[in-house]
Every structure is written in structure tokens, then in C-alpha cells.
Amino acid sequence: MTESSANKLLNGDACHRTSNGRKSSKNGFVKNHCLFQQPQKYRRPRERKNQNVTHNPSLYKKPFAESFEETPLLVAVLTYMGYGILTIFGYLRDFLRHWNIEKCQVAREREEQKDFVPLYQDFENFYTRNLYMRIRDNWNRPICSVPGAKMDLVERVSHDYNWTFEHTGKVVKEVINMGSYNYLGFAENVGACADAAIESTKKYGVGVGSTRCELGNLDIHEEMEQLVARFLGVESSMAFGMGFATNSMNIPALTGKGCLILSDELNHASLVLGARLSASTIRVFKHNNMQSLEKLLRDAIVHGQPRTHRPWKKILIVVEGIYSMEGSIVRLPEVIALKKRYKAYLYLDEAHSIGALGPNGRGVVDYFGLDPKDVDIMMGTFTKSFGAAGGYIGGKKELIDYLRNHSHSALYATSMSPPVAQQIITSMKIIMGEDGTTLGADRLRQLSENTTYFRRKLREMGFIIYGNDDSPVVPMMLYMPAKIGAFGREMLKRNIGTVVVGFPATPIIESRARFCISAAHTREIVPGD
Ligand SMILES: Cc1ncc(COP(=O)(O)O)c(C=O)c1O
């Protein structure tokens, strides 16, 4: 793809889903997120007027292709009908439970408390009781091996329609793992990382028993943070024991009353919780939609705070690198252009993209060839590509120094376990090639090849998949509620472990299976042409 073809952009607008009536290719697949010129059949019919900074193709150095086919009308109708039937049966069974014809397994208000205000709303439990319970066997399966390319599962059965489970004592061996976020295959119990983690356990033990600011600041933590800063290309970094807490505890340290958070509608729960805890005003923009973001930014500048119309103290845009339910990649060049134009700050959560994207595995900034300094707060986790645990924040030295003294997770949480820190150091050095091998580069190439191959194969087989062509998170649409459980079970019968997802984690008619591709997957696992 050349620069000149980039200039022939037709489809620079943001990520709307295609309408039901749009003509699609054989399997209904429509490319509607492509910033570079596509074959005629994939193009949008009309060029948009009023292109502005948010539609500037010159911001992208490489093709940006994402697809989100809107649910076909017939499938939508059948899916709603499926939920309708399940709801009718749910009411019927609730009726039978009420009259003790069917045994009621669900927790109920105690008889002596029946005049109290109910502790929980019975209706809210309806979905769990009558819909989720039917397919509960697809989740929380106990795994009894390293979650690598293959894994062992503890076999379990339910004799009461999934209310309780019993272990049979058998192990389901060598299940192909298509669900763990093991992008670079570092979830291992042998090899350089495991050896180094064992050595560090011998030296430091596992627990630290104190916070960073007291007696929990080990030399290995400082070494790790300097390495992380070097990896990200930022001045400084700080690591935390938990990725979720990195978001939920640091956002409140950065913004507060009188500040505005502009949050992507599909942001992770940890970002949402952090934003809520901060007491900032939160406004939500459509997923990866730059017009929607720009509108909010413009309104925020023009109108200021409600009632007083004073300017906002700070405006913080919060986005993720790869969205783990959609497989989409943030339109970072456009977000950065907007944040510069409107003088807002940018918080980028790279939980799924760090290690998994970019020629050097340095995430979405590396992927787009951008300057890390353009992102004010670089957040990420060590739980995915590094096969470890915890999270980090990277950025300017003043930012990190401030967080060390103001973040609850820095001041009040026990610091990271030393073998975990060692796993991060060793895997990161491998990715950076500082171990003197090409193992890191090989894994990055393998992940990229596996991703391209897997997405292409699914598409050729006629499945509807979501997301960016380069995203190792591959959502495959199932739509109907009955398919959620059936797909998970049938895959397991074929010795393949997948994650299936439905409402409320997805919109009601967009249930899906989510595959996570790993560099550890071989052609034997994902058969070649
Ligand atoms: C975008 C994002 N941020 C944060 C987290 C939380 O990270 P952790 O699981 O390491 O606590 C996740 C978890 O999957 C995530 O997807």
C-alpha cells in the first residue's frame, strides 16, 4: 500500500457499523473500517463531506482495516425470539419454584426477614437463575496445568442442572487453549523465564510483606521499573501488583471534582471504576468514533462545567489499545491529534496491546509508529503478553513521582511478588532482544503470522468475525443464546477450550466466541493450508 493510495481515501470516517441493507461479500463480510483504498466491493458508496482532522489519512502510515458487520435482520429477529422463549420458560419455572413443584436452589430472603426491605431484587436475579444457569458449565472450569498452548482441565459434572458441580477425579488432557491471553507464549513452566523466576524465589522468597514506601521496595522492583520505562520509551514508570487496581486506583489520583473524563463506551470495568471513584464528570463517546469524541471535546471547551460554565480543571481522554471484546484497535493517531488540538490529556490502557502489537512488541504506539511522549499516561498490564501479573503506569518523571506519593495502590498495597517481577524482567528482555537471542522477534513474528492466518481461515469458512486484521483477539459471532452454550461444549468435545461471551458482557444480540491467538500455537494446533 503506497502513500498515494492512502490519499485516495474513501472511508475515513469513524467506526459505525454497517447498516443491515449494505451489500456484503459471500459470508456477509463488510470492510467498513478501512482507512486505505480497498477493492471496489469493499468500499463505502459515498465519500463523506467535511473531512477534518479526525479523518486525516496522512495520520496513518499503514492500512487500518477493521470490520464490524451489523447483525443481519433475520438473525436479530431469531435471537430476540430465542431470548423471548427462554424468558417465558424462566417465568414458568419460577412459577413451579414458587409452588415448590420444582426445587428452588437460589438464595431467598429469610422467612423472618420478609417484612424487611429486600436485600436484593429478585427480578435482577432472573437472568442468572433462568438463563445463565443453563450454560454455566462453560465458565469457571478448573485448569490444572500451565495455561500454555495446550492445557489440562479438571473434569466436572453437574447432577442438578449446573447449580453445583462435582469433580469426577479425571483430567481432560491436552486441551487446545484458544482462550488465555498468552499472546507471546510466555505462560510457561520451563525455559528462561521459569528458571529465572525460580532463582529469584530462592533469593527473595515469594511474599514481600510490606508496601513499596515501607519495607517492600526491592532492588528487583527498581530494576523492573527502569526496564519498563526503557521498553515504553518514556522517562519513568511504576509497577503495581494488580492490573485492575492500576486503573481503578490511579485514575482517582489523577483526576477529581471539576475534571472531565471522556471514556470510550467499551472501556474495561477497571477504567470505568477508576473514573467513577475519581468523582470526575464522565462522558462516554461511541466506540473508537472520532466524531463522537471530537463533539464531546468541543462541547466541553465551549460550555465548560455545568451551571458555573467554568473551564474544566482537566480533560482526560481514556482509551484502550486493543478492545478485548471487539478485537478493535484504537485509532490512536486521530486520538492524539484531537487531544493536541483541544489540549486534553490522554490515558492509554495497553493491557491487550503491549507485547502483542507493533514491530517491536511495544504496543499500539509502536504499531502506528508514534512518539510515546504524545501519550500522557501509558498504562498496561503484565498479565497477558508477559505471562506474569500486575500493571504499570509509564510517562513523565513528574507524573510517576506524583503517583508514588498519591496513588492508593502505591501507598497501601503490598508490592509485587519477586518471582513475578523476575518473570516480567526476563520476558521483556527477551522481547527487546537483550537476552542475545532472536527468540523475542521470532515470537512477535509468529503471533502476527498466526493472527493473519487464523482470521483469514475463519473468514474463508464463512464465519463473521469482528475487529482489526492485526488484532490477536478474534471475536467470532454466534448471536443466538442457544449457541453460546452449545458452541463451548462442542468445542470442548473436540478438545478445544474457548471463551464464549453473551449478555451482559456483549449487547443482547451479539453473543460471540472469543479466540485469543498465541505465538505458542503451532501449525499442528492451528492446521496449515
Ligand atoms: C483493558 C484492560 N485493563 C485492565 C485489565 C485488568 O488487568 P488484570 O487482569 O491484569 O488485573 C484488563 C483485564 O483483562 C483489561 O482487559
TrEMBL record:
<keyword id="KW-0256">Endoplasmic reticulum</keyword>
<feature type="domain" description="Aminotransferase class I/classII large">
    <location>
        <begin position="174"/>
        <end position="524"/>
    </location>
</feature>
<protein>
    <recommendedName>
        <fullName>serine C-palmitoyltransferase</fullName>
        <ecNumber>2.3.1.50</ecNumber>
    </recommendedName>
</protein>
<keyword id="KW-0472">Membrane</keyword>
<dbReference type="GO" id="GO:0005783">
    <property type="term" value="C:endoplasmic reticulum"/>
</dbReference>
<dbReference type="GO" id="GO:0046512">
    <property type="term" value="P:sphingosine biosynthetic process"/>
</dbReference>
<keyword id="KW-0746">Sphingolipid metabolism</keyword>
<feature type="region of interest" description="Disordered">
    <location>
        <begin position="1"/>
        <end position="28"/>
    </location>
</feature>
<keyword id="KW-0012">Acyltransferase</keyword>
<dbReference type="InterPro" id="IPR015422">
    <property type="entry name" value="PyrdxlP-dep_Trfase_small"/>
</dbReference>
<comment type="pathway">
    <text>Sphingolipid metabolism.</text>
</comment>
<keyword id="KW-1133">Transmembrane helix</keyword>
<dbReference type="InterPro" id="IPR015424">
    <property type="entry name" value="PyrdxlP-dep_Trfase"/>
</dbReference>
<dbReference type="GO" id="GO:0004758">
    <property type="term" value="F:serine C-palmitoyltransferase activity"/>
</dbReference>
<keyword id="KW-0808">Transferase</keyword>
<dbReference type="InterPro" id="IPR001917">
    <property type="entry name" value="Aminotrans_II_pyridoxalP_BS"/>
</dbReference>
<keyword id="KW-0812">Transmembrane</keyword>
<dbReference type="InterPro" id="IPR050087">
    <property type="entry name" value="AON_synthase_class-II"/>
</dbReference>
<dbReference type="GO" id="GO:0046513">
    <property type="term" value="P:ceramide biosynthetic process"/>
</dbReference>
<dbReference type="GO" id="GO:0017059">
    <property type="term" value="C:serine palmitoyltransferase complex"/>
</dbReference>
<dbReference type="GO" id="GO:0016020">
    <property type="term" value="C:membrane"/>
</dbReference>
<dbReference type="Pfam" id="PF00155">
    <property type="entry name" value="Aminotran_1_2"/>
</dbReference>
<dbReference type="InterPro" id="IPR015421">
    <property type="entry name" value="PyrdxlP-dep_Trfase_major"/>
</dbReference>
<dbReference type="GO" id="GO:0030170">
    <property type="term" value="F:pyridoxal phosphate binding"/>
</dbReference>
<keyword id="KW-0663">Pyridoxal phosphate</keyword>
<comment type="pathway">
    <text>Lipid metabolism; sphingolipid metabolism.</text>
</comment>
<comment type="similarity">
    <text>Belongs to the class-II pyridoxal-phosphate-dependent aminotransferase family.</text>
</comment>
<keyword id="KW-0443">Lipid metabolism</keyword>
<dbReference type="InterPro" id="IPR004839">
    <property type="entry name" value="Aminotransferase_I/II_large"/>
</dbReference>
